[in-house]
Amino acid sequence: TSITMDEEGDELVGTPVMYTCSTAIVMYVLVNMVREGLQLYQQHWQYLLDPTNLVSWMLYISTIIMILPVYHGNVNELQVSCASITVFLSWFTLLLNLQRFDMVGIYVVMFLEILQTLIKVLVVFSILIIAFGLAFYILLSRGEHLSFKTVPMSLVRTFSMMLGEIDFLGTYVQPYYLKDEEGRTLPFPIPAFLILALFMVFMPILLMNLLIGLAVGDIESVRRNAQLKRLAMQVVLHTELERKLPQVLLEKVDKMELIEYPNDKCKLGFFDQMLRKWLCNPFSDDGLEMVLENNEDYVSEEIDKMKLKLRNITKALDTQQQLLRLIVQKMEIKTEADELDEGVSPKELQPMPGVGSKWTSPRVRNKLRTALSFSKAHPPK
């Protein structure tokens, strides 16, 4: 699309192609905004907890502001700024959409997991950035250093110094020994070098190594969690699609049974093979093998824990059994097992006809049998 500006450079003259493309973009943005509004109505507060929804709304609003000069012709700094934001968020949204696909989605999820960890750590250690930034502002703002002229610029400069861009020669050495052409000086050299030494120890050495260790130290667990999270996202996506689609369409698409012939070889073209390789089923054999491989250590650890618990339970039962035997021997209690050992046959343990099942002791049954035989020998007159 060709864009022509007038001599002043603040008016834009559009072409029919520009109007067509702008109208298509506006229609697409409006449709997506309606879709996001429906999701907000369905999910309520859960919709606001997802950061990707905020990214989508920022993208739509910046796109609308960017397209406005095509219709009214005036271009200002706001439209240019929104254009840069729109380009960045468009490609970033493309990266977020790739996390649901196989092969490449796991790396996107890992990137987002590590990003969350780094943001948490930076929020905590931003206290050090503010501390050193204010210290450098007090010491160097009077020396005509443009990067430390204001407090915000001093904080940004301190953050860049944390990444290794200290500029030791131009900021500290030359102003200390020589007065350069820009008039930069070092009004307070001793405190400046002392704060700089503490900064080099705390920020580039300690903090940066801590961030790198957090990013790559636990990469295997992040990889396992990323694979499971990606599969969970696919399940949620399919569930939401089924909930939003009409029931008539679902009845035509859903199949109660599916017959497959594994011996029939299907010939696929190059394009079909690439699609199957990159956009295959999330629950394919490769995906499941990766999940099982990643979870092998976790399952083995859980099995070892269960075995240890069973051994502890067995030891506790043996100890209790020994204690019960000692108690019985101490109290001289005779049980049915002891009477069996004294010579009572197992037949005598069977219940007698006409006698309740609660009389199960051999001694009680012997007394009952003696009483019955006596009553039969001496009937009442």
TrEMBL record:
Q: Which UniProt keyword terms apply here?
A: ANK repeat, Glycoprotein, Ion channel, Ion transport, Membrane, Repeat, Transmembrane, Transmembrane helix, Transport
Assign the protein's first listed, main location to one coarse class.
membrane
Q: Where is the Ion transport domain?
A: 19-226
Q: Name one GO molecular function term.
A: monoatomic ion channel activity
Question: Can you list the GO cellular component terms from the UniProt entry?
Answer: transmembrane transporter complex
Q: Name one Pfam family in it.
A: Ion_trans
Which species is this record about?
Graphocephala atropunctata
What is this protein called in UniProt?
A: Ion transport domain-containing protein
Q: From which lineage does this chain's organism come?
A: Eukaryota, Metazoa, Ecdysozoa, Arthropoda, Hexapoda
Location(s) in or outside the cell: Membrane
